[in-house]
Specification:
The structure holds 2 protein chains of 2 kinds. By secondary structure, chain A is an alpha/beta fold. Chain A is built from 9 helices and 14 strands. The chains are: A alpha/beta, B alpha+beta.
C-alpha cells in the first residue's frame, strides 16, 4: 500500500535531542512509526521518548537495525548528516533541514547518484504512509490510508491538498514533499517511477511551483512512461519574474520556469491540470469516477 | 545576495583576474580626483546600483578629463536610475565607479551558474562571442553561440575545460592560456565563496590584445553567507526594499507587489497559491508573505505591521494551515496583534487544520472585526470584495 516507507521501515532520527527532533520523534511515534533509534554526536546513551540515542548512525544500524532516517540537524551540519546516513547504508533518508548551501547539495547529490538510496528533501515536509508511519513535519490528523499518491515541492500547500482529499474520503498510499530547494535529492521523476510501479497506487497528485524544470521533466516522463492518471496544480501563476518566492528554488529566471509554461507542458502530456487550488480534491474524485477507479464507500 | 560591480571587481582582482584601473567615488569632487589619480586621460563614470541596463538609462558616461569626470558624476550621483531591471520606480545612485577607458577590439561573455536541470545539477561555465548582450537574449536568439562546459565539483577544475571554452571562442594562441587561467580562477571564486551566479559581461579583448573584465556581476547563496563574513560585509541594505529588510530581520519572508490585497500565509507554496486565488477572484495581491511553517504570535504581529505599512493595502487575507501550529494559538496571536497595532482594515481569516473549531470560535467571540471564511476560494472572493468596496 505504499512506496519507500512501509511496514519494514525502522527509523532513526538524526538530531533527536534538539527541539525539533524530539518533538517530531514524539509525533512520529504517536502516528505509529517504528522510531527505533536517535543519533546526536556526544549524546549517546540517553533516551528520548523511550528511544535509545547513539553517537553515530552506524551504531544505530548495528544495534537497532534501522533502515530509514529523518534528519533535523541545523543547516551547517545537515549535509554531513546526510552523508553519514548514506555511508551507514541507509536507503531512505528524509532531510527536513532548511537552508543548506546549494553547493553542498550539489556534492551530496553527485555522491548519492546511482546508489539506490532515496534522499527526500532537503527543506521538505518529509514522507508519510498513512496507517504505517511518517518521517517529517506533516500533521498526523490529515491523512487517510488509501490509493492516491501525493508528491509536492511545497509544505503547507501539501497539507491543504491532503486535507482536501481526506475530507472527500479519498485516502493516500504515500505522500511525499520533495522540497523547495534548487537541488533536491529525489525528483518528481524518481518518485513518479515508484508510484507507477506500486500496485496499490491508482492515481497521482503532483503539486509543482514556479522555477526550475522539474515539472517539465515530470511531463516528459508522464507522457512516455506512465499509464496511471496524474492530476496536477502549479503554484505561482501571479509571481513576478526575478523574485525568489520563499523557496530558494521558486524563481522565474531569464523568462524560464513560469507557471504558464509548466501548465501547458503538463496538459500536453495528458495531465489533468487544476486551475483553482480549492478544487484539487474535487477534480481527483471526478477523475477517479471517470476512470471507474472509485470503490465502495469512497 | 547581490553585490555591486566595484565589489565584484575587487574580488576578481584579488584572485588575479585583470580588471581596469578604477576608484570608487561618492561625490563629484571625489570622482574628479579619482580621474586625476588614474591619470589615463579618458575615463568611464559608472553608476553603482544592483541592476543591469545602466548605460541605456544614462548611468554610464565617458569623460576625457578630470573636470569632465566631475561633471558627469554631478549628473549621475543622486539621480534615480530607471532600467529594465529596476522597475518603474528606479534606484537612487549613491556612488560611481571611475575607471580607465579601454580600447576594445572584441567583447566576450563569460559566466558560471548552477544548471538545475536533470542529469546536470552542477555548475556550468558559459561563454559566448556575443559579449555585451544579455545572455538570456543570446540563448533565445542564437543558442548555438553559447559554449557550455560542465564543471562537476567532484571532478574539480581541469585545464581541458578552459581550453574547451577558449578554442570554442576562436581565440588566438597567446590568449588561449590566458583565458584558461581566468576561467580556472573564476571557478575557484564560485566554489570558494559559494556564489550562485558570476558573469563577466563583457570580458574584452583590448586593442593591445589583453583580456580585461570590463563589467562583472556576482550573486551569492544566502544560505552560505554564515561562513563568508567577508562577502556578508558587502551587503548594501540601501539597495533593498526597507519593508523586505524589516521582514527578513523578523524571520518573515515578504516580497512587495503592486496590488491592494495584503495576504499573510504560512508556507511559501501556500502563500503563492493564495496570491493566485486573489487574482482568480478578480483582485491583485499586494505582497507575498510567508510567516513560516511554525509562526509564533510575535511573528504574526510583525507580519501585520509590515502588511499595514504599505498604504496601498485595502484589505487583508490571513490564510493559515495549522499543522504543528495550532489554530487556537494562531487565532489568539491574530487578536493580540490586531489590538496592539490598531488594525482598521477589513480582514478575512481562513483557518484550517489542528484545533480549527476552537480557533474559529475564538475569532468569532472577539470584539475585533473579522470575517471568518472556511473555504480557500471563498476567502479570496470575500477579501477581494472588501478591497474593491
Amino acid at each position: 500500500m505504499s512506496i519507500l516507507l512501509n511496514q519494514d521501515s525502522r527509523v532513526v532520527i538524526q538530531g533527536i535531542t534538539g527541539g525539533e527532533g524530539s518533538f517530531h520523534a514524539r509525533e512520529a511515534l504517536q502516528f505509529g512509526t517504528r522510531v527505533a533509534a536517535g543519533v546526536t554526536p556526544g549524546k549517546g546513551g540517553m533516551k528520548i521518548e523511550g528511544v535509545p540515542v547513539y553517537n553515530r548512525v552506524i551504531d544505530a544500524v548495528e544495534k537497532e537495525g534501522v533502515n530509514a532516517s529523518g534528519i533535523y540537524v541545523p543547516a551547517p551540519f545537515a549535509s554531513d548528516a546526510i552523508l553519514e546516513a548514506f555511508d551507514a547504508g541507509i536507503k531512505l533518508i528524509a532531510c527536513m533541514t532548511e537552508g543548506i548551501p546549494v553547493l553542498e547539495m550539489v556534492r551530496v547529490k553527485k555522491i548519492l547518484r546511482g546508489s539506490g538510496t532515496y534522499l527526500i528533501g532537503p527543506n521538505c515536509p518529509g514522507i508519510t504512509t498513512p496507517g504505517t508511519g511518517k518521517i517529517g513535519f506533516m500533521p498526523n490528523f490529515i491523512h487517510l490510508p488509501g490509493k492516491v499518491g501525493v508528491i509536492s515541492r511545497s509544505g503547507t500547500l501539501t497539507y491543504e491538498v491532503i486535507n482536501q482529499l481526506t475530507a472527500l474520503g479519498i485516502g493516500q498510499s504515500t505522500s511525499i514533499g520533495i522540497g523547495g530547494d534548487p537541488i533536491v535529492g529525489s525528483t518528481f521523476v524518481d518518485i513518479l517511477k515508484l508510484f507507477e510501479d506500486d500496485p496499490d497506487t491508482i492515481l497521482i497528485v503532483l503539486i509543482g511551483e514556479i522555477g526550475g524544470t522539474a515539472e517539465e521533466e515530470a511531463s516528459d516522463f508522464i507522457k512516455n512512461r506512465m499509464q496511471k492518471p496524474v492530476v496536477a496544480f502549479i503554484a505561482g501563476q501571479t509571481a513576478p519574474p526575478g523574485r525568489r518566492m520563499g523557496h530558494a528554488g521558486a524563481i522565474i529566471a531569464g523568462g524560464k520556469g513560469t507557471a504558464e509554461e509548466k501548465v501547458n507542458i503538463l496538459k500536453k502530456s495528458g495531465v489533468t491540470v487544476v486551475n483553482n487550488p480549492a478544487q484539487i480534491g474535487v477534480v481527483v474524485k471526478e477523475t477517479l469516477k471517470e476512470r471507474n477507479l472509485l470503490f465502495e464507500g469512497e | 545576495m547581490k553585490i555591486h560591480e566595484f565589489q565584484a571587481k575587487k574580488i576578481l582582482k584579488d584572485y588575479g583576474i585583470p580588471v581596469p584601473l578604477g576608484r570608487i567615488a561618492k561625490t563629484p569632487q571625489e570622482a574628479g580626483e579619482a580621474a586625476s589619480e588614474i591619470g589615463t586621460g579618458r575615463v568611464v563614470v559608472k553608476a553603482q546600483i544592483h541592476a543591469g541596463g545602466r548605460g541605456k538609462g544614462g548611468g554610464i558616461k565617458l569623460a576625457s578629463s578630470p573636470k569632465e569626470a566631475e561633471e558627469a558624476s554631478k549628473a549621475i550621483i543622486g539621480m534615480v536610475l530607471v532600467t529594465h531591471q529596476t522597475g518603474p520606480e528606479g534606484r537612487k545612485v549613491e556612488k560611481v565607479l571611475v575607471e580607465e577607458a579601454t580600447e576594445i577590439k572584441k567583447e566576450l561573455y563569460l559566466g558560471i551558474a548552477i544548471d538545475r536541470s536533470q542529469n546536470k545539477e552542477h555548475p556550468v561555465i558559459m561563454a559566448s562571442e556575443a559579449g555585451g548582450m544579455e545572455i538570456e537574449e543570446v540563448s533565445s536568439k542564437n543558442p548555438e553561440k553559447i559554449i557550455k562546459v560542465d564543471a562537476d565539483p567532484l571532478v574539480s577544475f581541469s585545464g581541458f575545460q578552459g581550453r574547451k571554452v577558449a578554442y570554442g571562442l576562436g581565440l588566438e594562441k597567446p590568449m588561449i592560456a590566458e583565458l584558461t587561467g581566468i576561467i580556472g580562477k573564476l571557478y575557484q571564486i564560485f566554489m570558494e565563496k559559494d556564489a550562485s551566479l558570476i558573469e563577466i559581461n563583457p570580458l574584452v579583448i583590448t586593442e593591445d590584445n589583453r583580456l580585461l573584465a570590463l563589467d562583472c556581476k556576482m550573486n551569492f547563496d544566502d544560505d552560505a553567507l554564515f561562513r563568508h563574513p567577508d562577502i556578508n560585509e558587502l551587503r548594501d541594505i540601501g539597495e533593498e526594499d526597507p519593508l523586505e529588510v524589516e521582514a527578513k530581520n523578523a524571520g518573515v519572508n515578504y516580497i512587495k507587489l503592486d496590488g491592494n490585497v495584503g495576504c499573510m500565509v504560512n508556507g511559501a507554496g501556500l502563500a503563492m497559491t493564495t496570491m493566485d486565488l486573489i487574482k482568480m477572484a478578480g483582485g491583485e495581491p499586494a505582497n507575498f508573505l510567508d510567516v513560516g511553517g511554525g509562526a509564533s504570535a510575535k511573528q504574526i504581529e510583525k507580519a501585520f505591521r509590515i502588511l499595514t505599512s504599505d498604504d496601498k493595502v485595502k484589505a487583508i487575507l490571513v490564510n493559515i494551515f495549522g499543522g504543528i501550529l495550532r489554530c487556537d494559538r494562531v487565532a489568539n496571536g491574530i487578536i493580540e496583534a490586531a489590538s496592539n497595532i490598531d488594525l482598521t482594515l477589513p480582514m478575512v481569516v481562513r483557518l484550517q487544520g489542528t484545533n480549527v473549531e476552537e480557533g474559529r470560535e475564538i475569532l468569532k467571540k472577539s470584539s475585533l472585526k473579522f470575517e471568518v471564511a472556511e473555504g480557500l476560494y471563498q476567502a479570496a472572493q470575500k477579501v477581494v470584495s472588501f478591497a474593491k468596496s
